[in-house]
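Workshop exercise sheet. Pairs work together: one partner reads the sequence aloud, the other fills in the structure field after running the prediction. Swap roles for the next sheet.
Pair: D.N. / O.F.
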Amino acid sequence: MSAVDPGVPRRSWFARLWAFIVELWDVLRRPSSVFGLGVLVFAGFVAGVVFWGGFNTALEVTNTEKFCTGCHEMRDNVFAELKPTIHFSNRSGVRASCPDCHVPHNWTDKIARKMQASKEVWGHLFGTINTREKFVDNRLELALHEWARFKANDSLECRNCHSADSMDITRQSPRASVAHQRFLFTKEKTCIDCHKGIAHHLPDMRGVPGWQ
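Structure field:
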């Protein structure tokens, strides 16, 4: 015989979930009658260390070139375009990988960028740019989003490696020297204003403000 009274309406899943949360909270806030305070504090500390270590490990895994190029949208398009450039292979052997240019180095900005990048996972799942044709059709929109991000943070990722204070303009070409002194040193412009397309092919730039 069923113990459930058929005359009593079944509670909704939300009501059952809320009842479970209330009951769980009641258990968590009730003083333990089994373990001492020191044991609970130590256990909480260990659990915090394990959680923090696991979180940072997962974060660093998603911050590698291997992870970034794990899907064919990146591997066959923008990564293939990066390989012939000086940022990928050069006489000094210093390589700027995907996260170096597209993920801030300091922790708070990095977390914010990771949260923003979650939309890219959504695009991957729904095949927004899963063919070369779709990628080319959306290239300008994708580039505009990234250029706007660089503009907003004063080309932060560029400045992680390139410092205006360390530039020896006497060893630059006359054109570069004049441009840096006129625009960069005076903060009238930021890196991305002039250095679009240094690592990836440019989209059709017709109609892009400030482009000649």
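Discussion prompt: The CA atoms of residues 69 and 75 lie 5 Å apart. What would you look at next?
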